[in-house]
Amino acid sequence: MKNTVPTVSTEPLAPLLHNSGVPPRTVIAYEGLAGMARTAGPGGSGMAGVSFGKQQAPQMYGTPIRFRLEPEAQAQDAAEFLGRLRGTWSESEDQHDGEDLAGTDDQPSSPEKILIIMINRQARGLPLPDGCLVIPAQDHHPLWSTDPLTVLAIFSKSTRSVWLRAKYPTIAAGLQLREVSLLVPPNFVVTP
Amino acid sequence: MLLKRRWGLHVRTHRADRGNSDDLEFAHMTDLSIDLAKPILAPRSTNPALNPSQRAPLLEPLGLIGFEGIEAPILAALATDKPLLLIGPHGTAKSLLLTRIAQALKLDFRHYNASLLNFDDLIGFPLPGADGRLDYVRTPAAIWGAGAVIFDEISRCRPDIQNKLFPIIHERKVQGIALPDLRYRWAAMNPPCIDDDDASSTEGYLGSEPLDAALADRFAFVVEMPAWRQFSERQRLAIIRAEDTPVDEASARALADAIALTRQVIASTSAPLAESVANYVQAILPLLAQARLELSPRRANLLYQVILSVIAAGVVINPAMAISDATLLALKCALPQRAQGIAAPEIKILAAHKEAVRLMTANANDPLRAILLTTDPVQRLRVAVCATSLPKSEFSRVVADTLAELPPGAREAGVVHLFETGSVGRLVASVASDAGETYAAIAAPKPFSETVHASQPRLQIWKRITTLLAKLNPADARAHLQANALASLFARKALHSPEDAERAFRQFETADKALRSA
Questions:
Q1: Is B472's CB within 8 Å of A28's CB?
Q2: ipTM surpassing 0.90, yes or no?
Q3: Which residue of A has its CA nearest to B417?
Q4: What's the pLDDT tens digit per position in B145-203?
Q5: Share of chain B above pLDDT 70, in %
Q6: CB-CB neighbors (< 8 A) of A24 in chain B
Q7: Within 13 Å of residue A172, how many CA atoms lie on the same side as its CB?
Q8: Chain B residues closer than 8 Å to A186 by CB
Q9: CB burial class (10 A; 0-12, 13-18, 19+) of residue B510?
Q10: pTM of this prediction?
Q11: Which of B324, B356, B349 is nearest to B335 (CA)?
């Protein structure tokens, strides 16, 4: 926390106009507990009418981790993404050791099916809780991964507000995203 | 669903008018949850009156049109002599129904308009007797010697009169004196206004006051009258053209026979059905409580008896009726809330019923059983989170229902618990997303700014919030969660008074503590 948090302020919206008939108005605002508590102290008499400085990064409960799909991995559809993945795969075979893109029991034929199997497999191995809050990515969030398959396993299994390991991947929606962050609760240890 | 075991229960019935006997096989009554689509009786009876294909209306021959849907509870009330309360708008034939039944049964009955009733009308004039004891001058309208009483407009009567009616309805006594001839205690009322935003309160009557909870709880049967829109075209025309004709002898005898037959079926089926029905009642009580329909222990006992009697009446009226349908009908007719002006939405009753029936089939070790029977929603959420073997759909349903039931503050603590335990990952996406929306404003402060007039209640609420938040220790990470939860409730306009803010603050604290101590 760098600065105090503006919590409540009372600002007259117009200069004093006696007998103008305009009832007094108050601006109430909240940006977190920290600033409020700091100024309240013992015997504090409430915050209305007190103004505080702006806080740059609001305090979060947990660890934010960021996922970014690098430009060279971005694709319009599953086939293109798989093509790009194959390119990187050959360069880092140890990373996806033994991964057979088409080698499953039911022999999936379409790129979407192949990619879904890969995403599910990748998601199962991620050292994350089974569900996490999705928050807008910010530069100060530590970058956790740029591995395309890992990132797509996050993007395609995220709704507007949560990432769910067991969710059926929506590849088209996932490929639209460029960057998201997950907020991992403090009782989970997150290792890259 | 497959039948695992059968009772092979036989019930011998005897029709006095025909002198024949019937062996009825109850093939599907091992458990209330067994094949719910099946009829109560196996279609094996040779008695035409009990043949599913020959269902004969019971009340229509008495000139009572459109009451098929409530025939079973009415017949059950008549067979058990338990107090019956009819609720319905004006002109729905409440008084007609009771009067015609009394006439058909040749009862010496009194019809009192409770809104105009003085106690002297009921008992006659007090007169000192020769031996110094107080006696009453028995006027023709007095209750002494009556076989049935109808207290019409009971919700419009003065509270002091209502108190005096209480022992008549409850224990067949007036002024402490027993009324040995009094068999039936009936009442009728217009629906009172319901103080609930969700309810269609337009149907309530301003002059119709909610019954006192204790009085309402004495009516074993609380039956809502069918509305005009529920009638078929034929029934509407029949009602329009109806004339006041005397009750014919054959119809009156058929009703008396049906009552006698119902009593026989109750006697025969009560023992074998007892365990299943008791389990059903035990299961449904917490489920109804979750729907904010709390029932007293006395009502639990009444519900048990009402179900047994309505199932028996269902056998007599319509052997094709499924056990589950008869049970649901009994449940609807055994809830006193409608008389008390408390909304009892059909959808919630149906959901609770379905859940209870499902619990009947659940294995004793099924975690869902333990979850759904946990009344306290915070504890239920805790148990559900611990039950990792619960399928995703079940877990999601339990979580969604429980979160909806939790009060503001506790709900936010529940959502925090889901994320902290990682169990949000066991939810279906839609439920998890909703939880995520809530958690987003708790895990990180969601800044907001609002301009309010000094005179607005929102400023007072906010002032109370700031006072509450000033008590928190910013060095404690959970204090931030509590503060953010309260602020988000305020921002979403979920707090309507400073007291609401105080309650939500405490609810978060209590629920969070309970969930973390697990």
A1: no
A2: no
A3: A185
A4: 899 999 999 999 888 888 889 999 999 998 888 899 999 999 999 998 776 544 444 56
A5: 87
A6: 453-454
A7: 0
A8: 477
A9: middle
A10: 0.65
A11: B349
